[in-house]
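A protein record pairs a chain with a discrete description of its three-dimensional fold. The following entry can be read in just this way.
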Amino acid sequence: MFDKNRLSLLLFRFWWIILLSVIVAMLGSFAWAQRQLPVYTTKAVVEVAQQEERIVNVESVKSENPGGMDYILTVAESLKADAVLLGAAKNSDLYEELRRTGLADAAIVKLLEKKVGAIWRKGTRLIDVVASDVDPARAAKLSNSVVEQYLALATLNRSTISGEATEYLKEQAKRIDEELTKAHKDVAEFRLKHKGLPLDEASGSSVERAAQVSARLLDAKALHASLVADVERARAIPPDNYDELLKISSLATIPAVETARTALANREQEFEALKRRYLELHPKYIRTVENIEIARSALRRLLGDAAPLLEERAAQTAASVKSLEEAVAAMGQESSSLNGILIPYQELKQKAETLQKRYDEITNRIADIGMKEKRADRVPVYLAAAAMVPSVPDRVSTPALLLRAAIGGVLLGLGIIFLIDRLDQTYQSVEHVEAEMGVPVLATIPDDSLEKRKLGGLPLISDRSSIQAEAFRTLRATLSLLGEESKRRIFLVTSAVPGEGKSRTSGNLAVAFAQRGLKTLLIDADMRRPSQQNLFSNDLRPTEEALAEVAVRTKEGGAGKAAKLAGLSEYLSGLAPLSEVGQATTVENLTIILAGGRSPQPADLLAQKAFTDLLARAEQLYDRIIIDTPPVNSVADALVMAPSAHAVCLVVHAGSTSRRAVQRAIESLRRANGNTAGIILNRQRSGVYGYYYNYRYDPYMKTKKA
């Protein structure tokens, strides 16, 4: 979990990365701007008409409002279509120049997409076709060529649609004209055969009924013949040739087919507007493509059943014809001989009139389309203002460029810092430790300078008003609140790995307890790499017994004075009593048992009963006992002593100790039945992070004592 304090620490530590990124980005942007050739920009303005008439199929001419936002946006996107840009490049002589550089058509289109743009002026029906180029004349020509190419392609597409509709109607008119000529000839021959009868003047209810039935019969036969012809035509067309199938009028007028066509057209129009706004992986792009495919599949399923659909309608009309023929036959048997002559005559006459009516309708449709296709074929987009050759190149706003570069540099720097943090496998903050380990942080010890550490590692003695001294007093207060008095007297201080500062921490903690007036014993149990003798080198006051023993060993040929002082190793080996190994110090109430001489097996010595007896006797003599032990992950010494301590304090070097090492140490202490009280976060960067940020500004710090 990322916390704001950790962010503050990162910014404090790596602010120079952000500054460096900003400087590099700004210098790079400025150098790039200086090397750029002057670019000239111009624009042509197109206007979208208020209303247009569009031929949908052979049945109707549909009026649309291209002034709507969807249509205008579609036009704006179509102006940047691949075919339009490629054609414009060829018209502006840019195509050949780019081809000579080895670019393919797809690469040329990608390049032109950066040079050409179509921008809709909100609240108007105007679209600016903007073009940029290092050559001002070519920029103007490119802008105008884009408009010309779009108008040419759109006009060609509309002409193709209207031409197909007119051609089909002409074929139908020719076929009906032949049938009409034959029908007129049959009527004339019938009149000639029965010229003595008043065929046109005959009347009567039976004749009228017969005529009505005959008219219905003729209509049914005509519809049936048309459907039969359409069935044959549908069978001759391959099932996947949907465009040819849609030219069949009886099929195109089926409500289900018309609904499917309208749905597909709407989806395709929506896709044209979206594909220029979103990439192929965008959810809206994918959803629109899926909707188009669904609509297309629905139309294909209907058209795939074209012949069966038409056959079904033909069968229905055939049944109607049969029924009407039976009715006519019945009327013929009941009628008189005159009616027997009049009925065939009325049939012939009605057939001729029906064909004439249908022929007139088709010729009127052809004339209507012919009048409207001139308007419908015209694209409802006009060139309102041609692009002019610019005389002044575009000016690059240096302040704006540098501002964007600075923002980019800041973001780059933050990205680098966050990457460093992600790769950092150490603990930097209290919140980070507690959230991940589930172990409380007892205190944070601010980092002090190397010079101060060289002067001495005991700030509670050398500089009691320092923030480090106050940190150790805070640690003392925290440990004093751990449970009952009898359960917080023996503290074992260790670390996960060497170099964490556990010896310095245990020494200062012992001084802090002693300065509080508590009789304190500090045991240096790190017999492998003892540090307390060096830490308290100027503060040790050996007892008379220890000095007497030193004198004896000196006579026997012992080493130097410091090496002669007996310690824990000699006590556990039975070579020295407790009175000899306990060394007084200049700090009142503080006694130290040094590590003593080196032992080949320190863990075996510490595991003996003598060590637990030492702690039991020390509890009777001292109020607080601090044990400095080797690192947990290095040797087993600390794990041997952990069960004997009331509380185990694990020292962690902030920003240095790996998380895995800390986790392993805590798990090892848990398995050894050690009572881990918490973690001491050592050498924390002060001034920005930690609980001691305000110590250097606290006016009470100058007078605060233990």
About this structure: The chain is about 60% helix and 10% strand. The radius of gyration is 51 Å. Residues 220 and 363 are 22 Å apart (CA to CA).
